[in-house]
Amino acid sequence: MQTEAGTTTFLPRPEELVTATRELDRGRRSREEVDKLVTKWTGEVYRVEDRLHFAWKTGGHLSWQDLFRPIIDSSDGMVAGALTRWFETNTFFRRPVIEDLPRLRAGAFAQHLPPPEQRLALILPGPWTFAGLAENRTGKDLTEVASALTTLLHDLTLELLQKGVQHILLHEPLLAYADEVPEAELTQLYHSLTEGIAPERFLIWTYFGDGSWLLPQASKLRVSGVGVDLAETPLSNLTRQPVPKGVTLGLGCIDSRTSLPEDPKDIQDVLQKIGEGARPERVLLGPSSPLDLLPWETAVTKLSVLGEVLGRSG
Amino acid sequence: MSEVPLLPTQEVGSLRKPFWLVEGARRGKLSDVAVDELEGLLRRVPFADANDPRLKSLLEGNASSIPVESLRELGSLFGLRFLESAGLDIVYDGEMRRVEMYEYPIRQATGFQFLGHVRSFDNKYYLKAAGVDAVGLRAPYHLEELSFVEQQTQRVSKIPVTGAYTLADWSWNEYYLRKQKGWKGPEQRRAAQREFTIEIARKVIRPTLKALVEKGAKVIQIDEPAAGTHPEETDLVVESFNESTVGIDAKLVMHICFSDYNCLFPGMLEAKRCRQFLLEFANRDVEGRDGYADLALFSDVNDGREVGLGVLDIHRDNIETPEKVEERILKAARYLKDPSQIYVNPDCGLRTRTLDVAWQKLVNMVRGTELARKKLG
After folding, report:
1. 3-state secondary structure of A256
2. How close A26 gets to chain B, by Cα (Å)?
3. pLDDT digits 0-9 by tens, A16-42
4. Sign of CA dihedral A97, A101, A105, A106
5. ipTM for the whole complex
6. Which candidate from B122, B169, B185 shows the least CB-CB separation from A234?
7. Is residue A214 assigned to a domain?
8. Dihedral angle sign, alpha carbons of residues B224, B225, B226, B232
9. Is A50 helix (H, G, I), strand (E, B) or coil?
């Protein structure tokens, strides 16, 4: 079992950046000063990821306000709408409001890209979650709107791959949170998203619920693997059947809903049980849900546990 | 305590703090905007004696000579008179002494440690604590502000207190989670959260409520804005309310807003000592949709408890007319057995609106209620 780790979710802003952002809002700092701090602290995230020997480095997405905003800001036909609770947390996001079939503005997303030498992995909203959480004000059928959103994500992925990004982590909390997901519609969306792109480029990351049911679907959805939230997924749901060959099992084992650092030994025990029951060929360890639900110091402390687990796993 | 009429009107949460109070607390010179606002507010609500030296200083743009506690007292008096002058039957002080509803109670408790800022939305952050040790209480809180309000008003007062469920949900739980051995899966997390919440109810909220009653509190509003966050935890919201209120001899009411009531009710009705649920409705009462239809959740189970009926949308500046308020009350009355079950209030605190908008909304709420009384009385 090949075991890797990565920053599979957003990281919080460090206190220096939080303070600077507040001062920007109060007119006491310039946008340029805050941008410089974002660059400085993103560099620090990469240093942490290197130190922990992470294979999947995302840089923490410190400049993103939420999962959708940079994409909304880089598109026509969409605006950021009302504050909406981010699942069962005390954090809110601005609901994407679709006013017309959305389209990516060429090159507009470039400002959100990490520096060229760091373009290993990038987080994007998965099409199911994006469409499911958006408000459709187009007057058109939701299927048509979801299809347009997926095309937008497909175009964006192509742009990102051209610019050197290696992997796209598709955040799909809604696939784990929702009671029912119509399989045919999901497959159709994912086929549109991945058309002409190698499955190795995509990995779905689920949280806020049990997303283990997606593991057998990974090949059909043309993605390389699925991440599950171990705080919400009973271990028995993972160990009772083998992970399909060639599918990466993502294990969200660092929980952002508690500040208590995980015990590396507990994670190793879980890995052993999963190794025996699910027999995955490849495991990717990461935070389960977005770490920006924690303060910076706490998030980094918890993330460091993964480095320790990797060290012990040899 | 004075009697209240049919369809009593009441406040439900905090008002926006006036500039003179915010700037004054920073001990600097008041801005022209703050002084102008104070002059305007005094014309509308003469909340203090014109010869009060504190007012004179403030009107001269000087707050630094006023002790902070005295300034806060003046703020409290302003909030109280603002609500009284708008015509409300049940009042408090607009929570003028409080900065927010989480950090202050947590600082009165023991076993917590503030870890840092976390995102609320966009790039806005709030300070969040973790329960790192067994929960305890330094001393009951909100006692001074209650005494002050009680001394100052002849009307029924109602003190708001943040509930145990919300304090637990908005904190991290380290101590009780650590007690769970091995991998912390869904089952262990739920057990730890329950223990954490109930300990806050028993060790922080209950003694505080008890002390408030001893100080004269007759009506206590338990605020549980987090109640609807985890639909599967309604039983824990109820259990924490019940544990918080054991032996508390006061009228106990609960405020919940912006939640899916179909998930919360009828389960919430197991909070047996809760005599009134103050709920937001106006926000969902839009063209083509009856925002009050969820009241059927009460009538369907034949529960005759009071409902604090939200008739003002706190997220919009447009001022509800008295006729709109009347229409909403009459609409609600069709779902409930008895109009005496209805108390009338904004959906939530009006702190999101300017004081001018809040005033106009509250005045129209009182006028609309008077119209409804004529139909239902």
Report:
1. coil
2. 12
3. 999 999 889 878 899 999 999 999 999
4. positive
5. 0.87
6. B185
7. yes
8. positive
9. helix
- The answer to whether residue A47 is domain-embedded is yes
Q: Distance from first CA to last CA of chain A, Å, rounded? A: 11
Q: What is the DSSP string of A74-134?
A: TEEEEEEEEEEE-TTSS-EEEEEEEEEEEEEPTTGGGGGSPPGGG-SEEEEE-HHHHHHHS
Q: Do the domain assignments include residue A230?
A: yes
Domains identified in chain A, total number: 1
Q: pLDDT tens for residues B18-59?
A: 999 999 998 889 999 999 999 999 999 999 998 999 999 999
Residue from A10, A259, A274, A300 whose CB has the most chain B CBs within 10 Å, to mutate: A259
Could you tell me the two tokens for B207? 């003694």
Which structural domain range is residue A25 located in?
Answer: 2-69+113-313
Whether the Cβ atoms of residue B158 and residue B9 lie closer than 8 Å to each other? no
Which one of B26, B117, B119 makes the best mutation probe of the A interface by having the most chain A beta carbons within 10 Å?
A: B119
Q: What CATH number has the domain bearing residue A166?
A: 3.20.20.210
Predicted TM-score (pTM) of the model is: 0.90
Does residue A86 form part of some domain? no
Contact B121 A294 (CB under 8 A): no
Closest chain A C-alpha to B125 CA, distance in angstroms: 7
Chain B nearest-CA residue for A89: B229
Query: Which residue among B116, B122, B178 sits closest to A260, beta carbon to beta carbon?
Result: B178
